Amino acid sequence: MVGKTEVNIYIGTTSIYTCLGNKFETLAAMNRGRGGLSFNKQFSMFTGSLEVEMMETYTRFESLMIDQLIEVLSRTNIKLSDPSVQLIISTTKGNVELLEEDVDHPSERTFLYTSAELVAARFSASNPPIVISNACISGVSSFVVARELLLSGRFNHAVVVGCDVLSEFITSGFASFKSISEKPCRPYDAQRDGLSLGEACGAVVLTTDISRAVSPYIRLAGGAITNDANHISAPSRTGDGLFYAIRSAMAEAGLSADDIGFVNSHGTATRYNDEMESKALALSGLNTKPLNSLKGHIGHTLGASGVVETVLAIEQLRQGYIVGTYGFKESDLPHPIAISSGKQKITKACCVKTASGFGGCNAAIVLEGSDSAKLTTENHNILPQKVNVVAKYTLPQSDKAFADYIRVEFKQLGESNLKFYKMSDMSKALYIAVERLLAIEGFSEIEPTRRAIILANRSASIDSDIAHQQIVSQRLPEGPSPAVFVYTLANVSAGEMCIRHKIQGDNTFFIENRDSGLAEDYARLLIARDRADAVICGWCEYLKGEWNVDLKLLKKIYD
After folding, report:
1. What whole-number distance in Å separates Cα of residue 155 and Cα of residue 162?
2. Which of 341, 344, 538, 524 is nearest to 434 (CA)?
3. What is the pLDDT of residue 184?
4. Is 150:9 a contact under the CB 8 Å cutoff?
5. Nearest to 35 by CA among 235, 213, 183, 188
6. In the predicted model, is pLDDT for residue 377 greater than 50?
7. Per-residue pLDDT reduced to its tens digit, 28-64
8. Burial of residue 469 (number of CB atoms within 10 Å: 0-12, 13-18, 19+)
9. Which whole number is the average pLDDT over 475-493?
10. Is the peptide bond before 187 cis (omega within 30 degrees of 0)?
11. Domains plus CATH for the chain?
């Protein structure tokens, strides 16, 4: 039987810190048409850099998160020590700069979950933190995951914090793709020549209790995560992956294009990303809606961007107009979009926020502002579907060196996919395990957008991080290799599987210290909430020749 409950997700207290200052300083600067990017001599590029007062025993990354959490929690009576509150951390690379100290023997602090536990312990958190590392959609993904957990009734409140800081590891990696602008970036402009990187941190309290929400009320009305299933480092040329995320998020919110007041897009100012977004917006019927990108003001802040930009979208909903897109003059996009360098008035208090990233991942959320009467009457389906484990596969251990072992495993598949040999070792291990899993039972009958892959591990992509840092440290004239750098994002391994098996649904990658079953729990929730019909899920670990890949295929049981 389908259960119904009146559950809504409201926005509570929020806080950000960008190169333009705190939330109010950042928005005021944007309203005045002022950008915060400046030339960074250390990295030889324009960046949005932060001055960080480091807390004793904590790194810059950890200090920023603690500072923002103190800010939001001090203005609410919601506490992380309460078992009904879940902390969710969004980051792309965390403390990765610590690899510079000893690249061959990464310190424990380099592992994302170590930082997460330290931050959680600072606030006596009752529940283990959830860490999401999904490249540049990590922040928006965190809101989608938080929404699913709150609607399931497992928690009453969630605190989302997103943060990333810059290092030579990151800046040299993006530079290897020739994607860095020589000047402050200009999203959607005909003269755009690449992105600008930035540092930032932001935190948001989400709650199902309207008495804990901040007025004027805004709710997180819908959200979705998808994959292009097209390429691990280039955006889809059709825009369909992002379109599917927008379409699903709006459908969940029960809204049409006519209801949307504005779009806050990813808008990196890279040529193909901006073109892809214009196509996705046209497919969604949103290309005539007022739209802005904030990256010309503060840079692309990676795992923080989805959180920081969502907070600013919330404030723009409340003020009734959106800030201009800094650096924009005229467009050459294949589909015209309603973008302006100056402020634009909005007439409907509803926003679509999007993000896209390496690995082909996309995410979208819908924010809706209204009176409290409307905000407390929406029904949501809760756990209507049954789930069955139809296949299991664990990649066997071996005394052979991984390179020899995995080559034999691949040849036994009888395939001639030469791309396999260019993948990271973790991707190779996952590739073989997924092939074996789907040989037991596949999902060819499942529509691609209803397929998902949910993974978790401890080391994220540290094995590839080491390889990239070793190249960076050599200071080679040709610079780092983009073919290595792209695999320094753990979710890219999942992205490879999305391409291989046309998986266009959710592709979230969690980081935790041990396999707690989080990936399977979330996979079950996706099916139970009718967000997917089939999900590959499990543990995918690889570090320095040691591997542990343990997968399951879950399917919806049809009555």
Report:
1. 20
2. 538
3. 97
4. yes
5. 183
6. no
7. 999 999 999 999 999 999 999 999 989 999 999 999 9
8. buried
9. 93
10. no
11. 3-376 (3.40.47.10), 385-557 (3.40.47.10)
